[in-house]
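Final report, closing paragraph on structural work. Over the funding period we assembled a curated collection of sequence-structure pairs, and we close with a single example.
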Amino acid sequence: MGKIHPDLAGAFTRTIGGTVYYMRYGENLARRKGVQGENRQFSDAQVLQQSKFGLLNTVGCSMRDVVEVGFPQRKRTQSGVNAFVQENQRVCRELGGGEVSLNYEEMLCAKGSLHPPFVQVSRDANGIVFTNRPMAERTASMQGNDRVMVVVFDPVDGFCRSLELCKRGDEAMETVTLPDYWQQENLVFYAFAISAGGTRASRSLYLVPEEG
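Its predicted structure, as stored:
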């Protein structure tokens, strides 16, 4: 079982097996713990790969409900979390000393051949506001009954909330109100589309909040 404890900087550190996962300056990091005989057991490449896998697995598990629907065309024997880990190793950045970080702007929590939706996000006094602009065009990769999904994720504390905003062909606006313990400065936002039957998806889009 992993152990979680505050480090000297006040961030939270998680130890699972021989890998430490922690926050520093609001960024998810992972590194391999130094243990006796470490250099004889693992090469630098292996240590880096273990750090990548551990960090992505932690984030994927936090977003489990999202990635299970966001990767519908994965192999039948593969879980959504595993598909997420496989897809996002390319956006992990090596920091040296076995440390890695994750680029949340390039990270994908969904992937597929559908066209992404046109969603905007903003903030007001009531919460997070998502707006969908309907797409009138109908193609093989874009149908009016595709479901538009939006995601609010706090990578620091691991909180995640997702909801179906509307159908692609509908104009919609939805306000998401979060509990007070969610830290607004940590939040990242995504949107993607899935087909009516849930068998296809678009790639996820990283959303930048519009200035009010």
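The mean pLDDT is 83. The longest helix spans residues 44-62. We thank the funder for supporting this effort.
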